[in-house]
Amino acid sequence: MPILASGISVSPTRSILNTLPGQKLEIKYSLINQDQEVKKFQLEVAQLLGEDLVTDPKISRISWVSILQKDITLNSKATQEIAATINVPVDADAGSYRFIIVANEISAITTNNATGVTLAIGYPVEVNILKALPKANLKAFLDVNPSFSIENKFNASVIIKNEGNITLYPISYLKVFGPKGDIVYQETINAQQLALAPKNSNKHDFSFVVNLTNILNSTGEFTAELISLDNSLQISDKQTQSFVYIPAALALIASLLVLVGILLISKIVHLIVRKLRK
Questions:
Q1: Is residue 274 part of a domain?
Q2: Is 111 left (phi over 0), alpha (psi -120 to 50) or beta?
Q3: Same domain, yes or no, for 22 and 90?
Q4: Quick one: 120 and 148 in the same domain?
Q5: By three-state DSSP, how is residue 241 classified?
Q6: DSSP letter string, 75-88
Q7: Which domain does 182 fall in, by range?
Q8: pTM, rounded to two decimals
Q9: Contacts by 178-187 with C-beta closer than 8 Å and gap 24+?
Q10: What is the pLDDT of residues 1-52, one digit of tens each?
């Protein structure tokens, strides 16, 4: 049985920490020498398994705990702050882990030339590792562009990403608004609400053609709107994109006008050059 030295105390008397896997914790407490003599201590970490103090890292979790200063000298009536960190692994199992930061007092040389070691006091640290809290995070990405090879055709790319740690069942709605604010196209994506696992994403690439009867009214800025949601968790994400569309027929007319203009300018320049040469 270890012998507890008198005149030594700690403040506070213990630490109880609640955390999640993968976190770094800090501990600070005071070691107080209430005795009249100078005392020297060596600090070490043990884990309390049942009723046993275990210091073997192979069968304990003491490697999680790091003490910043292990050798302490305390004058009479003096106080020393003790600092330690606990690095909880990301794969740590949920549960309660009990550690003791042990302050061993190093006494003077004994008659048989051996250094005496006395367990002065232990500082209990209880670490309660909780299960990872449910985190729902749904992200939507949108890219819609007109196809200039086919009249009134648009190409769309939609990515739905589950950035949380629980399975989602998202459904998405895509709407495309014309320059006048009218809906020229709409699509429901994943109407079956198939499962989307954590840290996974689904990409949907497709093309669609819209009926733009009035060429002049169909020229200008279009807006695409994507809303993705999971009704059961009441989470959603919304993305919008604006782009300018010029129908191919109008673009062709404009190109012809530009070409005619270039030819006329070229003809005029040619006539002027010929006149100057005469």
A1: no
A2: alpha
A3: yes
A4: no
A5: strand
A6: -TT-EEEEEEEEE-
A7: 138-248
A8: 0.49
A9: 178/210, 178/212, 178/217, 178/218, 178/222, 179/217, 179/218, 179/219, 179/220, 179/221, 179/222, 180/217, 184/210, 184/211, 184/212, 184/222, 185/154, 185/210, 187/156
A10: 343 556 889 999 889 898 888 899 999 999 999 888 899 999 999 999 988 8
